């Protein structure tokens, strides 16, 4: 099931025109008045991920966001938690380390990290934004559903905090060198995106209530440092990407082999955009609600049923 939400026109305009750095041409009978540039205060950002608190992607994001003037605090898993999705720990205690200033390492999932960060590190005074990433590898199509990176952002949205999931990777198996290199343009774009959101928000919310962004940056160029060809507002492509194959070992266990099963991307989806070298920006929400059409169809299907 894909997550669907009818988005406010303002958000669609923001993503389609503002992120590219251009605005649609509008005929005007007279020159526009000169106005002073709009400035916005820096943000308090909780930075998490699913690769671990010391992974290259989160450290690059920390350095770049801090250099941009934001007050950034890492609250991320102690160990690699890739593929944990929205899982949270159901245990009577959890271990947390504080290895350096502005860094907290939680022995749990991204969801656990965000929960701990919001409750304890930020002392109940919510940050302005949660950024999850930059992840090693893409989180498009079915990968997004099971992604701990996206799960960290979802945990923030559930608590009413705006969130951005940030991932780096093409549609092939990630290459360590080029993917890590591509994290530099990824976090550079994230800084520009956040700057645009805060300027547009002025003193209001960065994003519409309950809406987050799943951002996927492609790997471009032989060394991964190339610029993306554009920015596209996309949806989560409804395909699984990976398929599991099971082989009976004969002793009660089964060998598992995961194989890529990527199909051509749906038009307007994140797979298509990343495959074309564009940055995919997919609005998302934290629940599994569908739209009015699906609810009407379900009503027709169960009409007349009784307990």
Strand order of the largest sheet: 3-4-2-1-5-6-7-11-8
Biggest β-sheet strands, sense, barrel? 9 strands, mixed
Q: What is the count of DSSP helices, taking H or I runs of 4+ residues?
A: 8
| Average of the residue pLDDT scores | 89
Helix amount: 25-40%
Query: Which structural class fits the helix and strand makeup?
Result: alpha/beta
Spans of at least 5 consecutive residues with low confidence: 1-10, 12-18, 20-37
Overall spatial form: globular
Descriptive tags:
307 residues; alpha/beta; 11 strands
Describe this structure in words.
It contains 8 helices and 11 strands. It has one domain: 3-Layer(aba) Sandwich (Stationary-phase Survival Protein Sure Homolog, Chain: A), CATH 3.40.1210. It starts with 8 loop residues before the first helix and ends in a 5-residue tail after the last helix. The model is unreliable at 1-10, 12-18 and 20-37 (pLDDT under 50). The protein has helices at 9-18, 56-67, 110-121, 141-146, 148-158, 176-201, 270-275, 292-302, and strands at residues 44-48, 71-77, 96-100, 103-106, 129-136, 163-168, 211-217, 231-233, 242-248, 254-260, 279-285. A hairpin with a 5-residue loop joins strand 9 (242-248) and strand 10 (254-260). The longest helix is centred in the middle third of the chain and has 26 residues, at 176-201. By secondary structure, it is an alpha/beta fold.
Short description:
This protein has 307 residues and is an alpha/beta fold. It has helices at 9-18, 56-67, 110-121, 141-146, 148-158, 176-201, 270-275, 292-302; strands at 44-48, 71-77, 96-100, 103-106, 129-136, 163-168, 211-217, 231-233, 242-248, 254-260, 279-285. It has a single domain (38-238, 265-302), classed as Survival protein SurE-like phosphatase/nucleotidase (Stationary-phase Survival Protein Sure Homolog, Chain: A), CATH 3.40.1210.10.
